[in-house]
Structures are given as structure tokens and as C-alpha cells.
Amino acid sequence: MAAGNLVEEISDNLKLVVDAVKRAGPMAWALIGLMVVLYINPAQWIWRAWFREDGYYTHGPLIPLVAGWMVLTNKDRLARLPIKPNWFGLVIIVLCSLGFLASTLCHMNPPKYFIFVFYILGLMLLLFGTKITKALLLPWAFLFFMVPLPDAVIDIFTYQLRIFVTAAAVHLVDPLGWAIVKSGNYIYYPSGETLVVDDVCAGLRSLISLLALGAIFAYLSKLNPTGKLILFILSAPVAIVTNIIRIFSLVVVAKFWGTKVASGTVHDFSGYAIFVVAFGLLYALNAILERFFPDNDDAEPTAVKSEPQQEGAG
């Protein structure tokens, strides 16, 4: 029964899209066709980035599905909003097309990925209008989590995170007096063993994934828009802190059981464990923020009884 309801909801939303396209006329079909033609190759590149071994965007295929789920959960609200096409959407589409052309001439693929998301924004404005587009801004913005960052940017962030988390983990160990020495992302023990914090341990992958998780958590929370934004922003330091805890635990394991044990099963298990810890921290932060930023819209509205008008004498 639940599956049948889901199919029905998806069908209703597709009918809404088709009706909007019909209302916009042949231009809408032409613009959608243009998007397909322009982005058939970039879409393949994004797909390969999602499934690249040791990549940072293995969560990518889930992002459009989650965005679609966000739209479905708002279908009742969307159904009450008027469809009034906004021609500013065409301006956005033209600018996106020019940006795509410039990226092609400069042989730069990464900008095309981000332009694609803004192209969708332009279509939303042109087909549905301002009010529906505002209601869909969160699912639309969520799509950015599926867009791979340029490799050069990933390398810079990975290096900086790797050095930072290594220094933070060793700093936590210093009070224990273990005489551990750090040099860059290398940790040296008095026994002569060396623990290396590599790219995977830097935490960029978990940072990207936990930001996406934080966005979903904020969307589901019973917070007002300000509280949701704060919770989403806090998911970044939560990801970094949990990764520091992970490296600290590996340093401790390497001290007592050796770097081979720390780099083996314990390393793999800790990669999953930090998501459990991060989820617990997000849950705790959500509980705290609910005290200061509650969503008053969830409260039952008080019924206001209208007093009968008194007829004038005479």
C-alpha cells in the first residue's frame, strides 16, 4: 500500500511538471532538450567521479534521490502555490549556456558541473515561478553535494586537513608523556615505528558526506529556519572533531599494539564508527538548538471563534 502511495505521489508530481512544461510552450521543451545535449558528456564525467575507486563522492548517486524525496514531502504545500512562470529564469539559462561555452573553450570541465545545477534553477523559475522555486530552494541546493570538486581543490583541502588532524591528535597525546614526535603527517614512536596519516584519514571524504548528512538532519529537525542553518553549519566542525578522535584512537592503538594493527582492521572499523559518533553529536546539538530555535509552525494553531455580528436595532 505504501509503495502504491509513493508511485501515486511521484505520478502526481510528474503531471505537475508536464503541465508546467505545456504551459510554457515549445520553448520549455527546447530548453530541456538543450540541457540534455549540453550535459550528456558532463553527466558521464560526474558518473565516473561517483564510482571512482577511493573517490570522495561515492554518495553522489543518492543525492538526486534524496532531493526528490524532499520535494515529495512538500507536495501538499507545493500544490497550494500558484504556477506563474518567471522570465528571469530564461536569463539564468542564457547565462548558464554562456558559462558552459566559456568552460568548453577554456577546456575546463569542473565549472560545467556547477553550471548544471544553476541551469536547473533557471528552469524551475521559468516553468513554475518564484513562489514554487522558493519552496524548492533546499532540495535544489542539496544537489550541490553531488557535484565533484576539482582535483586541485581536493588536493589542497586534503593536504591541509591531513596536517591539521595529525597535529591535533598528537597534541591530545602530549599530556600522556609518550614522547611521540610529529613531522607533517608522519607520527614517530620511541619504538621506531611510524604511523602515517594518509589522504583517506585526512577526513575530507567524511567531511563531504557528513555535510550532506547534516543537511538531511537539519531538514528533518523541528527547528525554525535559523536553527536548521546553524545545525547544518555545525555539521562541518562535527565532522572534523570526529575525525580527530579517530586519528587519536589510532595513535593510542599503535602505541600499545603496533602500527600494523592500527593500520589494519582498527583503521577500517574506525572509519565507520566516526559516523555513529557524528550522528550522536548532531542529535545532541539538535536537542540543544530546539530550546532556542523551535519550529513554532508545528504547534497546533489556536482556533479563533468569530463572534456573530449584532444586527443593528431598528
Secondary structure: helix percent? over 70%
Shape, principal axes of CA atoms: globular
Mean pLDDT: 79
Strand content: under 5%
Strand arrangement, largest sheet? 1-2-3
What does this molecule look like?
The protein has a 3-stranded antiparallel β-sheet, with helices on one face. It is built from 14 helices and 3 strands. The chain is mainly alpha-helical and 314 residues long. Helix 11 (204-220) packs parallel to helix 14 (265-292). The chain has 2 domains: 2-148, no CATH class; 152-295, no CATH class.
What topology does this entry show?
Elements: H1 2-24, H2 26-50, H3 62-73, H4 75-79, H5 88-105, H6 110-128, H7 130-135, H8 137-142, H9 151-173, E1 181-183, E2 186-188, E3 194-196, H10 199-202, H11 204-220, H12 225-257, H13 259-262, H14 265-292
Antiparallel strand pairs: 1-2, 2-3
Helix pairs in contact: 2-6, 5-6, 9-12, 11-12, 11-14, 12-14
For this entry, give a set of tags.
mainly alpha, 3-stranded antiparallel sheet, 2 domains, 14 helices, 314 residues
Give a short overview:
Helices cover 71% and strands 3% of the residues. It has 314 residues and is an all-alpha fold.
